[in-house]
Amino acid sequence: MTSCPETAARIAGQIASDRAAAKQAADDAAWAATIPEPIRRKRARVSQAQLDDFYSLTTGLPDYVRKPLLARWHRIRKATEQGALAAANGFVRDFVASARAASDNLPLAMADDELASYARTNAEECGRIIAQADAGEVRSILIEGKLCRQPRFVLEALIKAIDAGVLPDLNRMGARALDQLPKRLADEKWWRGRLKRFVTRAVEQLMIRLGCVNRDRAAFMSEGSFKRMRGRDQRNAKALALAEATNEKGQTYTLAELSRRTVANPVIRRTELMVRILGTEEVMNGLGYASYFLTITAPSKYHRTSKGGPNPKYGANGNPEYSPRETQDYLCENWAECRALFKKKAHPIQVYGVRVVEPHHDGTPHWHMLIWVAPHQSERMLHSIGRLPARGSSQSAEQPDPIPAANGNRTGQGQRCLARFQARNQAASGVLWPPYRPEHPGNGAALHPNREGILVCQERYIARLSVFG
């Protein structure tokens, strides 16, 4: 705990720093007032020319990405070192080049309605190309070490989809998946869904790289992407309210009314999920299995933000600037290796469990798991998890915590461990996260200080999950 003299000294230092900054700003303003008007106009023209260079460099990026990028450009340009302007333009040029390379030529600057038109155009063009498949020769391509024969026009449509950024490289695609693709390439709905998902995901990664996703600026998801996702939800809700369905008995309901009666309703979905967890827990407790609660996180180099500020390990030492999808792949690979240890023929370990994935405030995912194992296998399971490979990190998994019994009964204890994490995933479940307590606002609203802010934070959390999965 920090002592009172140290706290007072820190506060006094901050006050002195603020006063010095204010005095410097006043001196700069007084000096600027002495500059003759012609010189000031010339400097303004130069500044406008510099801004024109910036906007020409960032062509193809959405406006809500340009804004924080422009702020970073200004900070570098205002440096006192010689060549600051060249350094600022060089940073922007490198950022835009890496963004275009990572996004696979996706139309990042397009709004949703423009993406719909773009999807329609591409689907129609691919449909016309594939319609000529019977008239063209058949060619062989090498996929996963095997020759796959496809009509030349089908391959042309595939290449067009790859160039548009909605398909991975052909070498990463199996022969069976390749056979199913021609019909999808001519489907406007398929194009539209993938374009929206991939464009939003690519733009959000750019915002993470710029440091716009954290508890101080926008938790879980950037403000621009959140507004985009909220607009989609509102349009979907309006479409469901206007569409009607009539059954064989002549009863007519809107699709919005029907969706509220299914698991599309967050309240029903949450209830069903918690019942499944409780049922599984009752069965496992009846069999005498031991239960543990496990949290798995990624190494520091996967996190854009660390301890309230930029993480110096992110994108450093030759490491890429990892996206949330790449972090999730890392966690899946680590857990797959752990399951391989469970399945060793000499001493196999049977583990059952429930997994919840949730993001940190900077969008980096981590896992919470409720797992059950036979008591005589608990020690070996804990030893295997202790050997969980942590590539690039000293530790990537916390030691599992055994779930204690309440009044001699463990039933429901595991469900309670996961309840608060599941509540975050249900925007309209009636459960607030963080729990809002007026008498302890800091405890319940670490990110937003009131009930409305918590609801927005929870909605932002759901939007992030829908983008990155």
Structural class, by secondary structure, is alpha+beta
CATH topology of the largest domain: Alpha-Beta Plaits
The CATH top-level class label of the largest domain: Alpha Beta
* Strands, total number: 10
Let me know the largest β-sheet.
4 strands, antiparallel
Q: Radius of gyration in whole Å, from Cα?
A: 27 Å
End-to-end distance, in Å? 40 Å
Number of domains: 4
Structural overview:
- There is one protein chain.
- With 469 residues, this protein is α+β, with helices and mostly antiparallel strands.
- The strands form four sheets. A four-stranded antiparallel β-sheet has the order 8-9-5-10, with helices on both faces. The protein has a two-stranded antiparallel sheet with strand order 1-2. Strands 3-4 form a two-stranded antiparallel sheet.
- Mean pLDDT is 77; it is low at 390-397 and 428-449.
- Helix 5 runs antiparallel to helix 6 (152-164).
- A hairpin with a 5-residue loop joins strand 3 and strand 4.
- The chain folds into four domains: 8-102, no CATH class; 112-207, no CATH class; 212-259, no CATH class; 266-431, Alpha-Beta Plaits (2-Layer Sandwich).
- 55% of the residues lie in helices and 10% in strands.
- The chain has helices spanning 4-33, 37-57, 63-77, 84-102, 112-130, 152-164, 175-185, 188-209, 223-242, 255-259, 266-286, 324-342, 378-386, 413-424, 441-444, 451-468; strands at 138-143, 146-151, 244-246, 252-254, 290-296, 305-306, 309-310, 351-359, 365-373, 401-402.
- The radius of gyration is 27 Å and the shape is globular.
- 25% of the residues are buried.
- Residues 172-386 form the Replication gene A protein-like domain.
- It comes from Jeongeupia naejangsanensis.
- Residues 390-414 are annotated as: Disordered.
